[in-house]
Each structure stands twice: as C-alpha cells, then as structure tokens.
Design a protein that fits this description.
149 residues, 73% helix, mainly alpha, globular
C-alpha cells in the first residue's frame, strides 16, 4: 500500500512540507554533534537519515503537486501547464542555492539560511493546508508496476 493511495495528494503535500520544516529547523544543529564528541558513525548515520528524509519529502511533495496540477488541468492545456510547472521547478532549483549560499554567509550562518527556508516552508504549509479538499486526489495503483502480479 502506497501512502498516496491512503492519504491522497493534498495530505501528502502537507505531510512532506511539515517534515521539510522540521528538517530545516534541525539541520543547523547537526554541527553540534561534532562538538558533543559524538562518534563518526553516529554523525554519518544522522546525516544519512536527514538526507534520506529530505530526498523522500522532495520527491513525495513534488509528485503530489504534479498530480494535483495534472488532475485539475483541462486536457487541451495540459502540455502548456505541465511545461510551465516544470520550468518554474527548474528555475527554483537553480536560483535557491544562490540565495541559500548568500544567507549562509550572512550573520548567523547556517541558522539564518535554514531557518529562513523553514519560514518559507511555514508559508507553504499554510497555503497547502488551505487547498480545497477536492484536490486531495487518491493515486490509484497501476497494474504494471513493481510488486504487481
């Protein structure tokens, strides 16, 4: 059973956004593991888990948003809307690292960068929570994927 089948795309977007906010709040604290004399194995495991959560949430949130966009778009405009959506996604992926780098160099360092993005995540969470419930599309299993008979 997939989470999107159970919860739907809107709820998965909200869940991935909440986890992202937590990750942004916790990430700058990782540098203190080294100061606390944590073992290298512990540090690597924690960094791996944070990265795994980040990657999982990014793909889940992106997929859920794409499902909502696809399901609410007229088929005549689907190519245009999906192309615009993916172009905005690519633009953000190229601009945000520059902004993050500038924030990282600002007073406060990692805290400034990560907590600024946590604040943007909070704005995204408010917007996602206020999406109409009819956008909570449940993603049905396809017959030919992995795990199917």
């Amino acid at each position: 059973m997939h989470l999107a089948e159970t919860f739907g795309s809107k709820r998965m977007t909200v869940l991935s956004t909440v986890i992202f906010i937590v990750m942004f709040l916790v990430a700058p604290l990782l540098e203190y593991l080294d100061d606390a004399n944590a073992s290298k194995v512990t540090i690597y495991v924690v960094i791996f888990l944070v990265g795994l959560c980040r990657a999982s949430c990014a793909s889940t949130g992106s997929m859920s948003l794409q499902v909502m966009i696809t399901q609410t778009t007229n088929s005549d405009n689907l190519g245009l809307v999906n192309g615009f959506s993916q172009s905005l996604n690519a633009l953000c992926k190229s601009v945000v690292p520059v902004i993050a780098g500038a924030l990282y160099d600002a007073p406060g360092g990692a805290f400034t960068a990560y907590w600024t993005f946590a604040a943007f995540g909070l704005i995204s969470l408010v917007l996602a929570c206020n999406l109409p419930e009819e956008l909570n599309f449940k993603i049905a299993k396809s017959g030919g994927g992995p795990g199917s008979s």
